[in-house]
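hey can u check if this looks right to u? its 221 residues, i copy pasted from the old doc so theres a chance i mangled smth
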Amino acid sequence: MTKQEKVQFVIDTLEKIYPEIPVPLDHKDPYTLLIAVLMSAQSTDVRVNKITPLLFAKADNPYDMIKLSVEEIREIIKPVGLSPMKAKGIYGLSHILIDKHDGKVPQNLEDLEELPAVGHKTASVVISQAFGIPAFPVDTHIHRLMYRWNLTNGKNVVQTEKDAKRLFPKEKWNDLHLQIIWYGREYCQARGWDLDNDIITKTVGRQSVIDAYYKNKKTRS
């Protein structure tokens, strides 16, 4: 299989498995998505989706958010972890949105990345999911799968994003990054991974990864 055939196989398989793509984080507009994505750093989407309704019941826009203190925000979001940093970020970015952007979430990476506690990945998720602008946010699932599929060298997430954008058609980026995340959770996990159920890695995977999988399986049995 050529590299291009592998890429096409990945796209076709993911479209077959996920014709309808669920969005991982519950939100109703760009602001609530931004806050949810910020909260999801080193936490699970399930946990974030349990906490955001409590926060958004008190403040679902920057104007209401700055009426809360950092301490009050922290108290609500504590279960998602890293709450001191995240609470400061939420409060600080809400102020900046009001002062610099008329209370609206900007639609470009540069302005988003200037907001406190908002990194490149968070900004990419927001522009792709809230505004439909092509982006390819790389999380741990995408980084792991792109390496296993021999589509990147696994050096770092920056390289993985570059390779994903180079290999996949731009009009597919927004769907693909979500499809790969769901596939990683359901079929190609970091732990407890069953290669027999993982049609993509079995078909296009890096030989050294496949060999290591079977070697480990042999050792365990």
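The longest helix spans residues 83-101.
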